[in-house]
Structure formats: structure tokens, C-alpha cells
Amino acid sequence: MLDLSNYSLPAIFLAGFVAILAAVEFGRWLGARIGDRGDDNVPTLEGAMIGLLALMFGFTFALALTRFDARRTAVLAEANAISTTALRARLLPEPHRKEVLELLQEYVKIRVDVTQRALTPAEWAAEIDKSNALQEKLWQQAMAMAASDTGMVPTGLFILALNETIDNQARRLIAQRSRIPNIVQLTLFGIAVVASGFAGYATGVKVRRSRIPVYVMGLLVSCVIIVILDLDRPGAGFIEASQQPIIDAATSIAAIPD
């Protein structure tokens, strides 16, 4: 099955717009050949297909927007968890305090770097492996402190914050990987093409109807579809959830005095 995630947004827009225009012209040609013989059903069919297309627009846009909000919320939650971990790390005894803060600086730098550019699946996996390795080092520090003084309150608070940081990475990864199913995207394109064909058919039956409104509709339909796909593509499109919370967290951790 065709996987739209393998293609760039400009390529999808161009191919979709061409397919819609082709459907319009085919429908117009078919309508001109049939003439007024099918005129009674044309408005009903055209309205039904456009209504179905509007329903699909609302459904897929809601899916994309929900996932977009989830990614934005996950960034804020992870930034807050990392910042809290860093603040509680300042309560730890030396040499753990210094070592933990250095690890957190490296950790948050990785979290910022993955937001600055679109990564290939291999690069993404490598960055996640680095994050997991740093989490393990941080956890080893927590285990060492807990073993040396089980009654130490700052250590317990730090462990709770570190656990929240680890959990929030998982939540952010889930939000990042959650996409509109490919079959839903293909269905949206299919309904758009069929609806455009019916609109073109109506212009063919009514020979005096202009092509321009149908072409404008095709352009708008293509633009709306691309907006939906853009919302669903973190790191690869023009619409991005703000990464400022994680950048602010990295800045604040870097500013902690030694």
C-alpha cells in the first residue's frame, strides 16, 4: 500500500492537486457526453460527495490537532520534569551533585538537538539510545546515593524527579510517533478526487457553468489536506509545536553554578 509518510509535503500537494484537476476534467468530459440525461441526480450526488468530504475533513483535522496538542503538552511536561530533577540535584552531596548536573546538561542538550532538525529513523534511534544511556548513568548515581544513606530526604526527592523525567521521555516518544493512520489519509484523498469528479461532471452537464469555481475548490481542498498532513508530521513540516520549554530548561540548567 502507498505510504504517504515516505513522500514530502510539496510532492504530495502537487500530486494531489494534479489528481483532483484530472478528476475534474474527466468528470466534465463525461458530463458533456451524457448531457442532460443524468441532470436530475447531479445536484444530489454532488452535494452528497461534498458533504462526505467535509465530514472527512472534520474527522482527520480533529485527529491531527489532537496529536499536535499532545506533542506540545509532552514537551512542556518533559521540560518541567527535567528542570525539577536539576533543582533537586542541587541538594545532593558532592561529588554526586556535580556529576548528576553534568549528566543532566548532556541529557537536555540531546533533547534539544532532536527538535532542531528532521531526523532519519536511524538518527532518531541513535539519539534515543544516547538518552537511555544517560538515564542509566543518572539512575546509577541515584542507586549509589540510596545505598550509602537510605534515610536522606534529598536523595528520595531526586529519585522521584528522575523517575518522572524518565516517564516523560516515554510519553513524549509516544506523542511523537502517534500519527493519523495511512489508510485514513488515503481515504481522504480518494474522497477528494471522487468529489472533484462529481463537481466536474456537473459543469459538463451544464455547459454554461465555468471551470474556475471547480478549480478554486480543488486548490482549496488540496491546501486543507496539506495543512492536516503538516499538523501530523512533527519535525518535517511547516507547523511545529513550540520547543521553547525544553530550550528554556537547557538554558537554566547550564546556568546552574558549579
TrEMBL record:
UniProtKB keywords: Membrane, Transmembrane, Transmembrane helix
InterPro entries registered for this protein in UniProt: DUF4239 (IPR025333)
Top-level taxonomic group: Bacteria
Pfam families: Bestrophin-like
Transmembrane segments: 7-27, 47-66, 180-200, 212-231
Name of this protein: DUF4239 domain-containing protein
Species name: Pseudaminobacter soli (ex Li et al. 2025)
